Amino acid sequence: MSESLRSMKQHSRAEHFEEFLRQGLVLSSNFSYGEINSQQLIYDASAYWIHQFGQAMLPQQTALLWVHTDLSVINSCSLNVSFMDHVLAAGVSWSCAERGDNSLSRCAEYPTLQIMTSNEMNMASFKSVLSAAVPVWGAEGKLVAYLGLFSQSGIQSDEIVELLYALAISFQSSVQSVEDRRKYDHLFMQHQQRELEFKKHDILFEASKKLHAKIDVDSVLTEVIECIYRFYPNIQVDLLLSQDNDSNNLYVKPLNFQSAEDDIRTRAFMEGQVIFEPTSDAQGASTGNVAAPLSGKQGVYGVLYMKSEHELIHASDLQFISLLADTAGSAFENAKLYEQSNLMINELRLINEITKQLNQSLRLNEIFNSASSEILSIFGADYSCILQTDKDSERLIVQATNLPSMFHEAISLNQGFSGLIYNTKEPVIISDYMLNTKMNSKLMQLTNSRSLIGSPILANGQVEGVILVVHSQPNFFSYDNYKLLQVLCGHIGLAMTNASLHAEVRRMVITDNLTGLYVRHYLDEQANLLQKKDFCGSLIVVDIDNFKRINDTHGHQVGDKILIQVSQIIKTSIRDSDIAARWGGEELAVYLPQVAKDQTIRIAERIRVRVMEETNPQVTVSCGVSDWNWEEDKISVESLFYRADMALYQAKNNGRNQIQIG
Predict the structure, then answer these.
(1) Where does residue 357 rank: exposed (0-12), middle (13-18), buried (19+ CB within 10 A)?
(2) Higher-confidence residue: 10 or 152?
């Protein structure tokens, strides 16, 4: 090294030494990096100095102390100083009140270099001790600590100052090293944080792709839970849904709306935003509970609830959880809409098939039986009942059921669930009959059922019947089942109306409008059918005597009245299985299946006598009787009718008001 350079370096060191003597040690660091307080930084730097240099830089019987601005010991390093052991421990106070006048307390009062001997310090245990203390300043001019040196090695004042200066310079380098280490740690933490953020974004991106690729609700829920556990393996997670869900995932649970209003799960659902409930009041990251709403475009479907007892939740975590919950809510909504659209398609297909089946028959009993079996199959129910309104008796009659003891049961319009549905014209759903204390139901009691759905069968605003569907398990039927039953009841009601109209039209086609008896072609058809399966039968042809004279004398209205009277007498003189018809004009006929000739004659005589006694104005009738049995060679309706007609002709010619056999 050249003489000029060496001279400059010595001059610079001399100036620095003079500044040290004047104001103490000035650190280049600002002591605020990373929000570490100055006392902690002094302690870390002193620990680093002791580790790096320590006793190697101290003479025998010498101690170096780092003291806080309140004169409590931060740290110390010593070499064979048994006389000072009791005052070197961390936290020991060097205030004047505690230790008397000393270089550290004097430096606190006058913050510049202080040198004192043991005589000046007036401390009995400090014999032949020389001490020096300097203040330690931060770069912004703030006093942060004191550096004290105590020696019993016999060194002089200028030597202890030189030693303290050397120790201070080495300590300053230790501060810089700690500062650099902290900067590195901080940068490393930032790097880790950025990597963590990148990982979150990657997980969120992958989760978003997977969630939106799934169209099954249960798969969406499972993916959400797995995504959370990939990033937060030590956090307890629950997915709380506000809707019915059949998921087998143990983490998926119903959202309880009856919990306290300030419960963060309820609040997150109602307010539609992420809510964090920390376990401590301290600022920054904390453990605690997080509730994030699963939101879609159409509403909030549930809450993602996370309980962290050990992992700290940062603001970035809340943002990540919020984004994940929003993505999950959107995917859940899409899957739910897909599920509902499939359900609607299946329901429409089902309704279409049932409507086809119902329309294949125009007989009410077939419609009831078909509907009953289809309902049991669709809803997976244990029992069903279809009741029809009987307006004459003002009761509901069970027309179809798989419970034999209830078939054709007549139920009062004010009794049970069927009565309730009839009177309110509204459907009902019962989740658990055991919890019901207001309504008694014979069907529920006979079948030991607990779940029920029921709906009225409406036609033109009138209740034509009621359908009840039950199951032994509680909460068996869903709201979708409840709605589907209403739709099916509408179609069943339409089928019932069509069948009733068809039956009425058919009745009008085969019934004489005046007398209420069947028309001739119906009698012909039925007699022909019965001859093919019965072993015998009879026919009575009845003709009102002198009917033209009655019309001419009393008028056609009286003639019609006579026809009605005779028809009523005939209907009340025969069985329900017998077929009475208007043969034509004033002629009437009765076919008696499975009735022999002798009994037919007695029935004909009963009719003849009753007509003569009960008509007003009085008329008489002539009757022709014919019969057939399976032993005859040729059996035909034409032959039967011809012989009866010939017998009637004979009765007319023989004086009327009599019976002849053909």
Answers:
(1) middle
(2) 152
